[in-house]
Write a structure and sequence with these properties.
Strand order of the largest sheet: 1-2-4-5-6-7-8-9
Bound molecules: ligand C2E, magnesium ion
Helix content: 40-55%
Number of helices: 12
Radius of gyration: 19 Å
Shape: globular
Order of helices and strands: HEEEHHEHHEHHEHEHHEHEH
Oligomer: single chain
């Protein structure tokens, strides 16, 4: 009975998510007519440079508010969207929306967007990315696509070619949740990865003792040794930040610095005194 209920709930989820996506507006939030907030939104979590402490950009994170059930975590609906293939149009929507909204940020700020392994397997990913860049006019160098280790495992040859093609568009590539998957270290050399995103479990383990500290330091050295930038995720305390700084980690992201916020909140953060223009479409 419990399984039947889970299956029913799942098909409900996927149907509702499909509807939310069909109704999702494309275009920056400030160009939207006033009204109820759309069920699907992209939120943005700030990322900072460790040595200068300056804001370097934001990671786009999709948010879904179900009309009856309220907010549903991406950790719950992304896997369902991956199983059904809905992640392909959903991911394309997130990318387009995020690129459009990021064009309003100062030109030195970067945008990171998550790509699912399923998207990497879809035929027109390069086209989709090129489209989003063209339509938004976001300079390709400001976009970083985050992939996970699992995505690299599927078909190393095909994935290698795809990553090279994406790199040729001028976008940067990040390896997300590093250390939690099962990629061999050889992958790191084989693919054109610009940023190593150290999974938050390594940061959170710091309080456990000297071994966690040593592991984190070694990952930072590995990344830098391979010519990559390192970014630690899930930094929640000043003590964690101090350790990362001591180990020479390049960038940080986490609740200690700020959670994901709406596109409008980003604009307020970037220009506290400037009012957001109010256009209507
Ligand atoms: P991720 O890409 O590793 O994103 C980081 C996650 O950690 C986000 O969870 C973020 O809100 C959360 N986080 C940030 N700082 C902290 C912190 O200090 N402590 C803790 N405990 N958590 C923190 P979120 O938004 O729930 O997303 C979960 C995962 O869902 C993401 O992990 C990513 O794998 C996936 N996801 C989110 N949006 C998208 C998307 O648009 N496309 C795809 N394919 N996946 C997405
Ligand atoms: Mg990510
Ligand atoms: Mg991550
Ligand atoms: Mg993740």
């Amino acid at each position: 009975a419990a399984m039947g209920e889970r299956v029913a709930r799942r098909s409900l989820t996927i149907q509702d998510l499909g509807q939310a996506l069909a109704a999702a507006p494309v275009g920056p939030s400030w160009l939207r007519a006033r009204g109820p907030a759309p069920a699907l939104q992209v939120h943005y979590q700030p990322q900072f440079d460790v040595s200068s402490r300056e804001l370097t950009g934001f990671e786009a994170l999709v948010r879904w508010t179900h009309p009856q059930r309220g907010p549903i975590s991406p950790a719950d609906f992304i896997p369902v969207a991956e199983e059904t293939g809905l992640i392909v149009p959903l991911g394309a929507w997130v990318l387009m929306q995020a690129c459009l909204e990021a064009t309003r940020w100062p030109a030195h700020l970067k945008l990171a967007v998550n790509l699912s392994a399923v998207q990497l397997g879809s035929r027109d990913l390069v086209r989709t990315v090129a489209d989003a860049l063209e339509r938004s006019r976001l300079p390709p160098g400001r976009l970083e696509l985050e992939i996970t280790e699992t995505a690299l495992m599927n078909d190393p040859e095909a994935v290698g070619g795809l990553l090279q093609a994406l790199h040729r568009l001028g976008v940067r590539l990040g390896l997300d949740d590093f250390g939690t998957g099962h990629s061999s270290l050889a992958c790191l050399r084989r693919y054109p990865i610009d940023t190593l995103k150290i999974d938050r479990s390594f940061v959170q383990a710091l309080s456990d003792g000297p071994q966690a500290d040593m592991i984190l330091r070694t990952i930072v050295q590995l990344g830098h040794g391979l010519g990559m930038k390192t970014l630690a995720e899930g930094v929640e305390t000043a003590a964690q930040f101090a350790t990362l700084q001591r180990h020479g980690c390049s960038q940080v992201q986490g609740h200690h610095f700020g959670a994901a916020m709406t596109a409008d909140q980003v604009l307020v953060l970037l220009a506290p005194s400037a009012a957001v223009p109010e256009f209507e479409l």
